[in-house]
Write a structure and sequence with these properties.
135 residues; mainly beta; Immunoglobulin-like; five-stranded mixed β-sheet; 68% strand
Length: 135
């Protein structure tokens, strides 16, 4: 498996095999004072699943870390099972949208952060962003 698209969004959902994103693609959040609690932040992904990965449990984990690599205690784990539609040509990968929302995330200080995405304990991608002090 590999991740072809990874972004942060205000909200996202999957319907009919399509990814719908609202307020996506940002890399900076501004806050007046710290610590700050961000009401909702969503990790939106599209995974490319290979034919040999279909029809079995695929373990995926998303974790929030700070710029020093310290885990922030914000994480999600899940299993994904992907089939193949009958119209998919043999040997072709499947593209699967994945949405992982997080609510009331506390950021203690202005600094860099990242959501890491792991597949079977291997990091596939890292979505980096920063929290800055603003007016």
């Amino acid at each position: 498996m590999k991740i072809t698209t990874a972004m942060l969004a205000d909200a996202a959902q999957v319907q009919g095999g399509k990814l719908f994103v609202m307020g996506g693609g940002f890399d900076t959040i501004s806050a007046r004072k710290f610590p700050v609690v961000h009401r909702a932040i969503t990790v939106a992904l599209i995974a490319e699943v290979q034919p040999d990965e279909r029809h079995r449990e695929l373990e995926i984990a998303v974790n929030l870390i700070d710029e020093d690599g310290q885990e922030m205690g914000v994480a999600a784990q899940g299993r994904l099972r992907v089939g193949a539609p009958p119209t998919l040509p043999p040997g072709s990968p499947s593209y699967v949208p994945i949405v992982t929302p997080f609510y009331n995330v506390r950021f203690p200080t202005p600094m860099g952060y990242a959501f890491t995405v792991q597949f079977e304990s291997e990091e596939l991608t890292r979505i980096t962003f920063r929290i800055v002090k603003g007016e």
